[in-house]
Amino acid sequence: METEKILTEISFKAVRSSGPGGQNVNKVASKVVLTFDLVNSAALDEEEKERAIKKLKSKLTLEGILILNCDEDRSQLKNKTIVTKRFLDLIEKALLVPKKRKPTKIPKSVVEKRLKDKSTLSEIKQNRKKPEL
């Protein structure tokens, strides 16, 4: 993942925040909307795109565009840094290749113990029966 290339493909838009906030909300566009075209990105190769699309399917639009919002702070600049950091973390997690699981071998001592326990339980049950005359 080339962070610098990805950051050049991001576009930001400042929008008025929704919800309560008094006079400040009505006149200041502090909410930041980040958009990233995942399908047409030149910073990611085809394999990375497929992996990211698969993992971020619920967050993408029909055109394959990722949209993130941030209106946590009153400062537009802080919101921009927050949403950028959130975006990079999201992309990094989406591109992470999971390790292949190596099936472990059952130790010989465990197998022997299981068979021994099985035979002792069988013996106990045999001893409960009435003796044959």
Can you tell me the residue ranges where pLDDT is under 50 for at least 5 consecutive residues? none
CATH class of the domain at 3-95: Alpha Beta
User: Average pLDDT value?
Assistant: 89
Widest β-sheet, arrangement of strands: 1-2-3
Radius of gyration: 29 Å
Examine the coordinates and then state which fold CATH places here, giving the name of the CATH topology of the domain at 3-95. Answer: Double Stranded RNA Binding Domain
Q: What is the number of strand segments?
A: 3
Strand content: 5-15%
The helix tally amounts to 5
Largest sheet, in brief, is: 3 strands, antiparallel
SS content category:
alpha+beta
The shape, in one word, is elongated
* SSE run: HEHEHEHH
| Helix content estimate | 40-55%
Distance between the termini: 81 Å
CATH architecture call of the domain at 3-95: 2-Layer Sandwich
